[in-house]
Structures are given as C-alpha cells and as structure tokens.
Write a structure and sequence with these properties.
Elements: H1 3-18, E1 27-28, E2 39-40, H2 47-55, H3 60-66, H4 72-87
Antiparallel strand pairs: 1-2
Helix pairs in contact: 2-4
Protein name: DUF433 domain-containing protein
Pfam families: DUF433 (PF04255)
C-alpha cells in the first residue's frame, strides 16, 4: 500500500476520533467492541464500569475525572440507558 494512502487513512481516522461531538451522550452496542456490550459512543468505556462507579456513590463529575475521554453528558446518557433497561 502506498505511503500517501496510509497517511490519508490515518489522517481521516484521527479527524473522526477528534470529532466526537455528534456522539456525545450516546450509548451503543457495536459489533467487535467490548464483546458487543454497551459502551459510550466514541470510546470503549463500558456502561458496566460507569454503573459500578455510580453504585459506589460517585457523582457524574467524579466519574468524568476517572475517565478523561468522557463528558458529564455521557455519564447522564449511561444512567438514563440503565434506568430504561431496568424499566423494560
């Protein structure tokens, strides 16, 4: 594969990774990501990990300090996802 193609693909991937704005506050289940378990969109932080912190009494702000790649909106989305899945 030519180097310019590799560089182009890499730049595109970095740009997509840095442009997480449209994914903030979403929980997804993606094939080949965390064994298809729910994660925060745009990274691989599992819903189970956030749930465990919340159950231990951590606030959304404290959880964000533990995972620097997520936002308070992400944590709120996870908590909403968990409450919807329990209600269903």
């Amino acid at each position: 594969m030519p180097l310019r193609v590799v560089i182009s693909i890499t730049r595109k991937a970095v740009k997509e990774r840095n442009n997480r704005d449209e994914l903030v506050g979403q929980v997804i289940e993606a094939r080949f990501v965390a064994q298809n378990k729910p994660v925060i969109a745009g990274n691989r932080v599992s819903v189970a990990a956030i749930r465990d912190f919340a159950n231990a009494g951590y606030s959304a702000a404290k959880i964000v300090k533990e995972y620097l790649d997520i936002t308070v909106r992400d944590v709120e989305a996870v908590l909403s996802y968990l409450s919807e899945s329990v209600a269903a």
